[in-house]
Amino acid sequence: MNKIKYLGVYIIPLLGLLTFNVTGIYAFFGLFFLFVLVPLLELVFSPNNYNFTQTEQDQAQHDLFYDRVLFLLVPLHIWVVYSFLTAVFKSFTCCFRSGGLCFYDGYHFRCGWY
Length: 114
Description:
Number of helices: 4
Mean pLDDT: 83
Number of domains: 1
Order of helices and strands: HHHH
Helix content: over 70%
Distance between the termini: 71 Å
Radius of gyration: 24 Å
Number of strands: 0
Shape: elongated
Oligomer: single chain
């Protein structure tokens, strides 16, 4: 169980991906989770002040599990940034296309080409 808690580092990037890929009320689940559920869980459960002993630190330095957790986190963060940028790009392109079409229609309507 001690190693499994380190997989919790993946929660925030996965919530970011969920937020970028869903619509409606589900898009706010990440904010609800981080700003409502996590503080409530911190109030309910007492903090754990346990740190590794020196022998446990030596064992953890040679364990590949922690390295794999970090190495897999980097591509996940790159994917989150990519998803964010594509979502922003889609929004900008929709705004520019609709603005361009409105300008085109308005210009031609003013000139009497319709």
